[in-house]
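Quick start: what a row looks like.
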Amino acid sequence: MHYSLLTERAYIYWIRFFVRYSNLRHPREMGKNEVEAFLSMLATQRKVSVSTHRQALSALLFLYKEVLGQDLPWMVEIGRPVPTRRIPTVLTVAEVSSVLCLMDGVTALLARLLYGTGMRRTEGLSLRVKDLDFERHLIVVRDGKGGKDRVVMLPRALEPALREQLDRSRLLWAADRAAQRPGVYLPFALEAKYPRAGQSWTWHWVFPSSTLSVDPRSGIERRHHLYEQRLQRALKNAVQLAGIHKPVSIHSLRHAFATHLLQAGTDIRTVQELLGHSDVSTTMIYTHVLKVAAGGTASPLDSLPGG
């Protein structure tokens, strides 16, 4: 069903948890009351976050509808907690510049690319050679969140570095072909439909790992893309060296991309399309940061005599 491996493992975890919590009763023997009791326990005793609570509910709905084939009325009656909209951590232009200047190598290029395009970390890490279009200065983001494709700009300042990265990637690809290693992972059923496509240069990773690893689904040893932990460590070190005391993550680069575009006068609908948001209200969260940061509303303290 095109779920990620992490989602599959999470669903299995919650379904097992539900069965064990219900004294090993078969789910067919249970229904709305048992599901609501389990979800209530998670909220009141475990005090899980809203996102975790919604994930557990989604896992149980998947169990009943897709596994057991039960499309019952009570499924739609179960209330879903409303997620809390948090104000994102946004770095200033100067802070982004200082952090990026303190990074080097492939992680520096990847961090610059994420900030320069607004891509999510998995979208940047899993870029294929065929997704870069230097002639039209664009990048095609395949199968983004929600299974959607979109197009983002290819920063002209990164073109030389990206071409050099492709040269390094091609050396690894050539070594794999010479050693007759299996091709890279292909999404969904493409590997069955085009069995040799994974060995082609066009499907190779832009940011391949320097080492081989075992594919957790197939058990085949092949070349994966760069591990995100490597980028996380490099970014964390740069943030510390820059003396920034904000909770910065890889996703903060995406937040900075959106905020800085809006700050420069870019239309919010354009930013929405670049980020791949299905609802403009998600993009609007960045305008809330700008309203206060821009000094549009002054504090009453500043108007006091001697304040």
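That is the whole record. The domain at 85-295 is CATH 1.10.443.10 (hpI Integrase; Chain A). Residues 159-178 form the longest helix (20 residues).
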